[in-house]
Each structure stands twice: as C-alpha cells, then as structure tokens.
Inverse folding.
C-alpha cells in the first residue's frame, strides 16, 4: 500500500530509527511499511496517525 | 553469551532457548549413559527414550512464547512466516526422501532428524524473508 510516511518523517527530520523508537517497533518494520512492502495492522496505523497528528487516510492510500 | 539485541522479547526467547538446549544436552547424555550402563526395560526404558525429546518440543513452546510476547507485529509476521518455511521445508525433504527410500532404496532417514531439518529451513528463511522487505 502506498503511503506518505517518508514525507511525514522528513518534515520532522526523523530518521527511520527515530520513528521506530516512537512507535516501539524495529527499524526494519518502519522500512517495510514505508516501502509499501508491509501493510500495518489497524492499531499500528492508528498509532502512526496519532503520532503525526493526522488521519489514517491522510497517510495511506489504497488506490491501485 | 552476550546478547546485543534491545528487544526484550528476543532476549527472553534466547535465554529460554539456551535453557532448552542445555536441558536437551543433559537429558541426552543421561539417557545414553543409563541405556549403555544399565540397559533399562519396560516403562523406564520408554520414559528415558522420550526424555531428550521433551526439551526439543520445549523449543517450539519457547518460540510460541516469543510470538506471543513480541510486540513488533512485523517481526512477529517474520517469525510466523519462518515457521511456515520450516514446516514446508521439512515436508518437502521428508516426502522426497520417502519416495527415494521406497523406489531407489537410499538409506532410511530417521525421524529424529526432522527437528534439525525444520530448524535449518526456518533459520535460512529468516534472512531471506527480511531481505524481501528491504
């Protein structure tokens, strides 16, 4: 699934490791989500949305 | 042994795994020693023969605990997928071996090796799976 994580992360000047620490997941997890190779669960998607102060739909795009 | 991971679930898994491996080594030496020196029979023989299998089964339980305690869902998913690769690899090897045994009479593969085959496939699959997500 496409997403804007890289952009949102860059706006805050966070590294993948910084975001991983805030989400309490591994850096590999952040990378897998960011590259669209792994779709997070709903709870993790909500956690991401809360962290960036936005909605899930504003981060993830399920258009093919 | 020095454990360099910051993940508490992985640290607990490695500690428990080490404990099961030590128990396996002790129970195997004990079983071999008693069978060689005392030649037990009956229920005791059966119990001693099964003894080394218990810590090996414990390794699966320990991995189950890891999956239950791992908070990182992506890592959990890698763990589950690696187990599937372990099971798939084991089934593939033993099925092919079984037909080879039946038709071209290669040496018998003792099922005692199944556990090792499972862990080898599982171990190999983890870096492969992680590479897929890079």
């Amino acid at each position: 699934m496409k997403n804007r994580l890289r952009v949102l992360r860059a706006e805050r000047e966070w590294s993948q490791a910084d975001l991983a620490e805030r989400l309490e997941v591994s850096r590999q997890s952040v990378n897998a989500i960011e590259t669209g190779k792994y779709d997070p669960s709903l709870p993790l998607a909500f956690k991401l949305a809360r962290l960036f102060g936005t909605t899930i739909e504003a981060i993830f795009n399920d258009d093919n | 042994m020095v454990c360099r991971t910051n993940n508490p679930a992985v640290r607990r898994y490695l500690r428990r795994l080490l404990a099961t491996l030590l128990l396996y080594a002790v129970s195997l030496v004990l079983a071999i020693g008693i069978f060689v020196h005392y030649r037990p029979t009956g229920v005791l023989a059966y119990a001693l023969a099964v003894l080394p299998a218990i810590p090996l089964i414990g390794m699966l339980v320990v991995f189950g605990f890891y999956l239950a305690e791992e908070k990182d869902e992506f890592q959990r998913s890698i763990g589950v997928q690696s187990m599937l690769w372990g099971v798939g690899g084991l089934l593939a090897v033993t099925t092919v071996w079984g037909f080879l045994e039946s038709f071209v009479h290669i040496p018998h593969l003792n099922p005692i090796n199944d556990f090792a085959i499972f862990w080898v496939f599982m171990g190999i699959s983890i870096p492969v799976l992680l590479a897929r997500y890079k």
Q: What stands out?
A: Chain B has five helices and no strands.
